[in-house]
Amino acid sequence: xxxxxxxxxxxxxxxxxxxxxxxxxxxxxxxxxxxxxxxxxxxxxxxxxxxxxxxxxxxxxxxxxxxxxxxxxxxxxxxxxxxxxxxxxxxxxxxxxxxxxxxxxxxxxxxxxxxxxxxxxxxxxxxxxxxxxxxxxxxxxxxxxxxxxxxxxxxxxxxxxxxxxxxxxxxxxxxxxxxxxxxxxxxxxxxxxxxxxxxxxxxxxxxxxxxxxxxxxxxxxxxxxxxx
Length: 228
Known about the structure:
Blueprint: H1 9-20, H2 38-49, E1 59-60, E2 73-77, E3 84-87, E4 95-99, E5 109-114, H3 115-129, E6 133-140, H4 143-146, E7 152-153, E8 167-170, E9 175-180, E10 188-194, E11 212-215
Helix pairs in contact: 1-3
């Protein structure tokens, strides 16, 4: 898988076929929008072809519902509305901004990603969060993951969600979300994800790590009200 780490539209399509199989509705079309950036429209076209399966936790705001909010256009929402991502409608490069809107919302803060880069990153993140097989460990050393054969980081900057310095690793047939624990001196929290539990059996032999194992995809609603 890591030899085909997605960095563009074609790479994303390859990743999705590897992870989810062929499109379930290859001729489906997303609702059109004249005001949305081309890259966002293309992503919605791709999501529609997989019948929305490529998002299971956070979700993309439907194109007809996009609107300016505090100078930015939110387009991606954490499933409980606790985190937002947006683009500047006046910025031709479509850099992505983020905001934690709960309580007294902070100003929009720039990320280090453009819209196309973000959409790839977010799609791989969703593959982890909604994977049929997952293993989670907290407060552990994460360096050993990088020593495994055919492992490489997703070529994207770290995220501030779900925690600061959140990074993604790609293995041969698995993915990993890694970020510092709430108490950084304890180490890192790791979520391993795969299509089948068999693809994660190797982790059980890692000395000193106790895994919590989960099976079947998580069922999150995408009908949460927008947080403004």
